[in-house]
C-alpha cells in the first residue's frame, strides 16, 4: 500500500494546497521531469501560461485568445495553476475594478521551458507553420528564435499590431523585450501591421522578400525597408531533423 504525506503548503498565490495534490498524482515518480508534467501536462495548461506571459488578462480576453477552450475547462485550468502557485488573481484599481489573472514570478519562469520546447519541436518535419498563431505566441516565438550574435550592437524599437492586439518590442544587448501597448510608440524605428500574426512569418522565418509578403499576406510596414530587412535577418528557425528510412 502506498502512503503519501499530505502536508499543506502556501503557494506564491497565497493559496493553501496539499503537497500531495500534484506530485505523484499521475506517475508516482520522484523524477523532477515527471513532476513538471504533472504541473504542466494537462491539455491547455501551457497555452494558458503562454497567453499570460506578456502580462495579466481578464478571463474574457484570455478565453478569446484560445477559442478552442470552453469556459469550464479554462476555469479549471486557472484554478489548478493558482493552486500550484503559478498564477494569482487580483483586482484592477478603479475605475476598471475588474479581476485579472497574472503569473507569479515562478510562473514567468516557464517561458524558458517554452523556449526550449519550441526550438526542439519545430525541428520536426511534421510542424505546420500555417496553423493559426496567436499574437502573444508570435511575439514569444520571436523572443525565442532571435540570434543574439546577429543582434550584437543593434538597438531598435519595433511596433506590432495584429488585429486589435498591439505590442512594442525593444531590441537591446541581443535580447528582444516585448510588452503590450495601447498606442504606437513615438520612438519606433519600424511598425508592422496585419490582420493576423501569421502574415509576418513568411518574412521573418521564410525569408521571402518584403514586397511579396506585403502583396500575398497583407503585411504592412511603416519605416525603412532596409532596417526592416536587418531586423528580419536576426531570426531563424533551427534546422529540421530528417528521418532516414530503413
TrEMBL record:
Keywords: DNA-binding, Transcription, Transcription regulation. It holds the Pfam family HxlR. Residues 31-129 form the HTH hxlR-type domain. InterPro entries: HTH_HxlR, WH-like_DNA-bd_sf, WH_DNA-bd_sf. It comes from the Bacteria. The keyword DNA-binding applies. One of its GO terms (molecular function) is DNA binding. Signal peptide: none annotated. This is Transcriptional regulator. It comes from Croceicoccus ponticola.
Amino acid at each position: 500500500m502506498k502512503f503519501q504525506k499530505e502536508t499543506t503548503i502556501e503557494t506564491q498565490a497565497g493559496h493553501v494546497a496539499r503537497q500531495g495534490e500534484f506530485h505523484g498524482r499521475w506517475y508516482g515518480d520522484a523524477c523532477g521531469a515527471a513532476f513538471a508534467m504533472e504541473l504542466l501536462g494537462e491539455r491547455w495548461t501551457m497555452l494558458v501560461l503562454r497567453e499570460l506571459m506578456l502580462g495579466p488578462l481578464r478571463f474574457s480576453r484570455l478565453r478569446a485568445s484560445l477559442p478552442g477552450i470552453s469556459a469550464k475547462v479554462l476555469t479549471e485550468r486557472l484554478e489548478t495553476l493558482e493552486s500550484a502557485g503559478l498564477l494569482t488573481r487580483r483586482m484592477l484599481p478603479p475605475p476598471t475594478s475588474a479581476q485579472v489573472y497574472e503569473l507569479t514570478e515562478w510562473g514567468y519562469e516557464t517561458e524558458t521551458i517554452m523556449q526550449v520546447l519550441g526550438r526542439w519541436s519545430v525541428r520536426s518535419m511534421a510542424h505546420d507553420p500555417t496553423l493559426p498563431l496567436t499574437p502573444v505566441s508570435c511575439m514569444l516565438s520571436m523572443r525565442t528564435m532571435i540570434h543574439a550574435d546577429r543582434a550584437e550592437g543593434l538597438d531598435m524599437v519595433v511596433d506590432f499590431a495584429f488585429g486589435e492586439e498591439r505590442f512594442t518590442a525593444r531590441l537591446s544587448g541581443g535580447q528582444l523585450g516585448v510588452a503590450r501597448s495601447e498606442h504606437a510608440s513615438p520612438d519606433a524605428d519600424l511598425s508592422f501591421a496585419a490582420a493576423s500574426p501569421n502574415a509576418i512569418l513568411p518574412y521573418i522565418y521564410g525569408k521571402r522578400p518584403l514586397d511579396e509578403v506585403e502583396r500575398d499576406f497583407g503585411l504592412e510596414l511603416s519605416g525603412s525597408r532596409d532596417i526592416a530587412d536587418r531586423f528580419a535577418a536576426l531570426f531563424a528557425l533551427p534546422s529540421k531533423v530528417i528521418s532516414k528510412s530503413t
